Amino acid sequence: MKRSLGVDFRRVYEHATFMANRRFSSYSIAIIVASILSAVALLLLGAGQPQSMWLSAPLIFSTIIYKILISFQASRVGRELNTGEVQIYLAHTVTRTEYLLSTLLVVGVVPTLILLLTYVVMVAIVAPNTLISYDIASQLLYISADLMLHTALVMTLASRGRETATNIVGTMLALLIWIAIPMLLTFSAYYNLVGIRLYIVYVLTLLVSIAAPFTYQYYYSTMPPPTSPPPLRPPSPQLVLLISIATLIAVLIQMFVRFKSKDL
Amino acid sequence: MLRVVLIALAISSTILFAILVIASIYPLTTVYAIYQASLTSPIQPNAIAVMSDRVCQLYMYDINYASIGLRISPSLPDLYQYKVHLSWFLVEYGRGTGFINLTPQGISIQVFEVDKGAALEVQRMIREELRYSNYSQYLPIVTSKGLENIVSYVEKVAVQKALCTQSPMFMAGPGTVHVVQFKCNSTNPPSNGNAHIVEVCIHRDIKLLVPQGSPLSDTRLDRLINLVANSSLYNISTQLLREIVSTVSVNMFLWSYAQVESSIVLQPRGEHVLRALAFCTAFVSGIALHYRFRPHEYAGLVRFFRKLRQKIYRQ
Fold first, then answer.
1. How crowded is residue B190: how many other Cβ atoms within 10 Å of its Cβ?
2. Is B296 on the interface with A (CB under 8 A)?
3. CA distances from B160 to A193, B97, B110, B111, B125 (A)
4. pLDDT tens-digit series, residues A22-36
5. Of residues B171 and A114, which shows the higher confidence score?
6. Disruptive mutation site among A12, A24, A37, A43 for chain B (greatest number of B CBs within 10 Å)
7. Residue B209 pLDDT > 80, yes or no?
């Protein structure tokens, strides 16, 4: 575990722990709010819907809160870069790769892990018989891709030292995608678009949905079937998920490469 | 980092535990709907008899309102209870050409609820009576004595009898009643799977409205039924017989619909609460264990609790 590809994972873990403990208060607030919302929504609004919806709807709210938390945490990384605090860590404690890995752990992986585990625990308490099912497994995959891609996007901004932009873009992305996806889906599924407009809406839907595959999957599956089939069906959630994962890998690679060569 | 995860899980399971405890004490209605649902489509009588001063008809239908209403997930967790309650039901009679000079006193209704076994027995009795009387192949006419026997049996085996009040009549025109409506209540809501047996009695001298150009001259209800029952005796042509039967049967439809209240209630069981408590305990134990090995991560928390203790102690 100690050292692989020039990375000391123990140091990564220690640095991540140090950062997580420093930011514990913001984590706590997000966790409490999201937990209350999820629990209340799951318990009060859950019944009377197909199982996949019963599980998905409350999670949409949680993902928004966690995305805002991720953006907030990422902006603090941007501040560390701007104020020069990062140089203290990089001077003796960690390498650039280790710093970026530990930052990713704290900013993206931990909130994602918390949301997934909270959700699994909730299902285990409320309906343990549904715990090992395709529904749950696919939900976990979509949520992970959703939050991790958001992390990668805001971290790209943060690693360039754009603290305010990270905050604003991250929060807007979390809030606006939630509204944009159903609008675009409605356009592409119910409006009889033809020609160039049809392709513009399709590409827009694909671009927006890549940034939030879980939200897209939720709206796609709840969308009532159109009376007449559209000439070009909206992209399937599976396709969106695959492109999201590919984009996530690409964004992470370019972020690492740029950060390694960045003049601090 | 593990501390953050453990504390997050402890917080979320504690919140869930609190909600489950509250909901197990005070069950919460999560979804509530009230709607009118058909108990039966318009049906024809199972038995008709001309009594001393009335013409009585007996109807039967199964009570089934559990499957209608809220859309329920097939995998609804047992955390939720689906409750359906029938508050009252309406019985409507008529719907044909109309009854001339029918007054509220000219019609009466009795609604009995019987279980499945009794309903099957009543069906058997009606079949027996029809075979025995053998009046007509067009209308289920039985003897007055036969109908009395069936009704007295129903009264004996009925689970409960509904109390029905007549609503204002729907008029087809001046002096002509189109539909008679009764609003019925029973002490206990009717049970799904049971059957309703409805006896409708209408004054025998009530006339039926017939369209212009009809070959029927006398449209008194009892006489029309008498004609059908003794068609061979009176030598009635098939065409006229069909005319009489259609005039009678078109006015003898009965249908029923009910006001159903359905709700989904969050009512956690002991096992849900215990599971939440078990998770809570596991995560709190996890925090304690983690504190045992990495106490420096909890320095801030320890400091906070120490200050809190000092403040309380000073007061």
1. 22
2. no
3. 61, 33, 11, 9, 20
4. 777 777 787 778 777
5. A114
6. A43
7. yes
Per-residue model confidence (pLDDT) at position A45: 59
pLDDT, tens digit, 9 for 90 and up, residues B146-174: 999 999 999 999 999 999 998 877 777 77
Share of chain B above pLDDT 90, in %: 36
Rounded distance between C-alpha atoms, residue B135 and residue B142, angstroms:
7
- Across chain A, mean pLDDT equals 83
CB-based contact (8 Å) between B270 and chain A? no
pLDDT of residue A161: 85
Rounded (5°) CA angle A27-A33-A35: 95
**Backbone torsions φ then ψ of B157, nearest 5 degrees:** -95, -5
Residue whose tokens read 């809030």? A175
Tell me if A110 and B1 make a contact (CB, 8 A cut-off).
Answer: yes
Please name the amino acid found at residue B241.
Answer: L
By DSSP bridging, strand B207-208 and strand A7-8 are unpaired
d(C-alpha B274, C-alpha A124), whole Å: 12
> For residue B206, what is the DSSP state?
P
Express each pLDDT in A220-237 by its tens digit.
Answer: 888 877 777 777 788 899
